[in-house]
Specification:
The chain is mainly beta. The strands form 2 sheets. The protein has an 8-stranded antiparallel β-barrel with strand order 1-2-3-5-6-7-8-11. It has a two-stranded antiparallel ribbon with strand order 9-10.
Amino acid sequence: MFFTGWLIAATLTVKSQDEATPQYLFDQLSDVRISGFGGTMTEFSLVEGEFAVSQGGGGAVIFNQKFFIGGYGMGLATMHRRNDLPDYGNLILAFGHGGLWSGYLFNSWKLLHFGASLQAGGGSISLQDEYMVIQDELAYDIVFVGIPKIMLELNVTRWFKLSADVGYRYVSGVDSRSYLNENGVVRPFYRNKDFNSPFIGLSLMFGGFKQ
């Protein structure tokens, strides 16, 4: 009986001490390790049926080397000419986009590991004079861009890693405006399907990758 009574008293004492201990929101986050990274991205895809290279970069805050959230920006690096507008010559296509970037890394402590991410934001498409004779952008259009992708990452050092990416660029909201080309055929300036494309990419990321 004495032992049972002592055990109950000890339990109540510990419980009362726990109840009296102050608790704070940020103390609950003490086990969360926060770091960051940023770098360059290059993508190889199709634009209007032609081989295209896009270049840009991105950066994010990463939590426990698993979940990350940040932003990105990409722009068309290859030259795509439009020579069928009768009143204009030397026009090239401009296509850029940027927005939010979030994702998750699986077993990031391994030398090689996978990740998945989603980039989503806004973009613009326009035609520009190659020689800047015409200063204004023609057929300027605002679009939505969504890019899910899978990454295979290689940990090179504690502060640098390489990533091979595979994904799909989805573009919507392209304006349906059209023009009469040099052959008298009505043609839309742009079509959604001309910018939707699978892609492969390479990323160079620098930051805090120590576990």
